[in-house]
Design brief:
alpha/beta, 5-stranded parallel beta sheet, 4-stranded antiparallel beta sheet, 6 helices, 9 strands
Length: 214
């Protein structure tokens, strides 16, 4: 996948509202593989909705979204499975970890589907993230910041052309932010992938090609 294109896209809940000033809504926007994007937004402006639209979780929008010129509304279930396993990695804002599973078990749920990393590679990510002692801890026993890092490791356990991260460092301090950003950038660079990160204030500390405001 080389491009994700939004064409006059707008959440239906915003239809008829005046004074919508956005670099994305009701615009023609293209995300290109290999480039880095920051979407800076205020709460309630639709950044999580945008991620859900691109990932195919929701369709309550007008306009269109296309992957390499194919309107995603025309995609089959098999095509969506392929996109989610091989082309787009996604970190949702709520992380969606299973509280009753350990940190490693949450990561392995994804990695068993993709077979993308071996256990040693995953353990090295835990160490690089500063949480090597949390591998066997239940997700419910982790702090929110630790949960974010586990969810990021899980997102990295697949091949992808784009990695989409919804507020990935909202609960991390500056030092951990830089560490996480470096890991994400390095992992994405190995695959020649694009990065799309959203933020309501605490931005992922990486150099970006384009900043959009919602």
């Amino acid at each position: 996948m080389e491009q994700i294109a939004l064409n006059n896209t707008l959440p239906r809940v915003f239809a008829g509202l005046h004074g919508i000033h956005s670099d994305i809504w009701q615009q023609q926007v293209t995300f290109e593989r290999g480039k880095r994007y920051l979407i800076s937004a205020e709460s309630g402006t639709g950044k999580s909705s945008m991620c859900s639209y691109i990932y195919g979780y929701r369709q309550d929008y007008s306009g269109s979204i296309a992957f390499d010129s194919q309107d995603i509304r025309s995609m089959t279930v098999a095509q969506w499975c392929d996109v989610r396993q091989r082309h787009i990695a996604y970190l949702p804002q709520d992380m969606r970890l299973f509280d009753e599973l350990t940190a490693m078990e949450n990561v392995e749920l994804k990695n068993r589907l993709t077979g993308f990393k071996d256990r040693d590679e995953i353990l090295k990510l835990f160490e690089a993230m500063g949480i090597p002692d949390k591998v066997d801890s239940l997700a419910s026993k982790l702090s929110i910041g630790q949960q974010q890092r586990v969810a990021i490791i899980r997102a990295l356990c697949q091949p992808y052309d784009f990695i989409m991260l919804d507020e990935p460092v909202s609960h991390l301090d500056e030092e951990n932010n830089r560490t996480v950003a470096d890991i994400i950038v390095n992992e994405a660079s190995r695959q020649g992938a694009g990065i799309i990160a959203t933020s309501v204030g605490n931005h992922l500390q990486m150099d970006v090609d384009t900043i959009f405001n919602l």
